[in-house]
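Re-run with default settings, no changes from the original entry. Doing this only to confirm the output is reproducible before filing.
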Amino acid sequence: MKNKMLLLVLVSLLALPNLSFAETKKETIKDEIEAKRESIKNSVEERRQNAVDKIKERVDQFVQNVVNRYEAAISRLEKLADRIDSRIAKMEADKIDVTKAKELMVKAKAKIEIAKTSINGITTTISTNATTTALMKEEFKIIKTQVEKAKEDIKTAHAVLVDVVKNLKPGQNKLETEN
């Protein structure tokens, strides 16, 4: 009986470190898994942030290109307006009735200023609050609306300048003065 008891004590003493070692091994494996999980989470978050940053960069570049194009269009409209003004002055010096053209020119200059204001109102960057693609899409919709409004304002200013030119045509002036 003593032998059995002694044997049992010996076996338990031998098994105890193995159980302790198994517990330690289990804990280290658990820690490794948790570390891998954190590493994967960080990697996914980093990729997501890189994607969001690239989208922001592309949208910012797109908006900047559109703004540059619209500003160039406004510049061309202003040059055209100056040339039309000088034509009006020449015609006025030749004693041609240009009152209607002058009225249209004032309207055209006002429309050009409205178009300038619309272009300046375009939000050129997506805010830092847009951290997800869904928020970025919402902000891009707003920017797109602003771009469309500026485009329409430029078209309106151009149309009014076309009306001024039509009014200045020699045949138009003669017909209007005869009637």
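The two ends are 138 Å apart (CA to CA). The chain has one domain: 2-178.
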